[in-house]
Each structure stands twice: as structure tokens, then as C-alpha cells.
Amino acid sequence: MARLLKNPAKGHWDLMPYRGGPGCDCANYTICGDKAYADVQDFGDTVMNFPAGDGQAMYHVVKENPLTLEWIPYGDAWQIPTAHLRGLKYSDWVNQQERTKAIARLFGRKGIN
Fold first, then answer.
1. Which of 23, 74, 79, 90 is the most buried (most CB within 10 A)?
2. Neighbour-count burial for 54-82, b at 16+ CB within 10 Å, e otherwise
3. Domain limits of the chain?
4. CA-to-CA distance for 69 and 19, rounded, in angstroms?
5. How sure is the predictor about 109, in pLDDT bands with cuts at 50, 70 and 90?
6. Cα distance between residue 93 and residue 34, in whole Å
């Protein structure tokens, strides 16, 4: 059974005004989005993705036992239902990592993340 931290992950998205942030010094939205994406990439292989709406919900794996997740409000900031999230196990994360690596081997790294 997974646990969800109360506070979302910290990143450039905290500065974005449309998310309640104070604003940032980015020249345009593209630069702002690139900085937010770089923050997601900083989490490395410890991110779980789930299809949601027209994008994906993202969670950072903070701890393996018990599986503890931290919501990443990236992009459209999608979330999965709490019941789904709480039912996740460590093996689900391991399986997702294995599938991601298999796809990368099959198609190459380009366009996977």
C-alpha cells in the first residue's frame, strides 16, 4: 500500500503565477516550461507516470518501503484517484521501470520521456 506525502514536490512550477506562485523571471512560457521539465528530469528514474486526461500524472518515489510517493504538479498537474494510488505496491514501480527500460531498448531513448 502506497503512501502519499501531503505536500507536492518542489520545482519551478511553484513559481508559476497560474499555480499561485509569485511569478518567475522567465522571458516566455517556453523557457518556463523547459525549467519545469529540467526539475522533473532531476528526479531521474524515481518517477512513476500514469495516463490521465490528455497527459500524465507524475509522482516521485521518495521511499521504497513502504512505498511513499510525492505528487509532481508538472504540466497540466494531473493526479490519479487516491484509491488507485493507495493500492500501489513497490512491485508496481519495479514493473513500470522494467517496461520503460524495455521500450527504451526497443525504440531508443528518443521520445520516451
1. 74
2. eebbbbbbeeeeebebbbbbbbebbbbee
3. 3-107
4. 21
5. low
6. 26
pTM listed for this prediction: 0.86
**What's the half-sphere exposure (Cβ side, CA atoms, 13 Å) at 44?**
3
Is 36 in contact with 59 (CB distance < 8 Å)? no
Q: How many CB atoms lie within 10 A of CB 43?
A: 18
Residues 6 or more apart in contact with residue 86 via CB below 8 angstroms:
1, 2, 3, 4
| 108, pLDDT greater than 80 | no
CA distance 56 to 91: 20
Contact of 3 with 69, CB cutoff 8 Å:
yes
Taking residue 97's Cβ as centre, other Cβ atoms within 10 Å add up to: 15
Alpha carbon distance 41, 87 (integer Å): 26
The C-alpha cell at 4 is 502519499
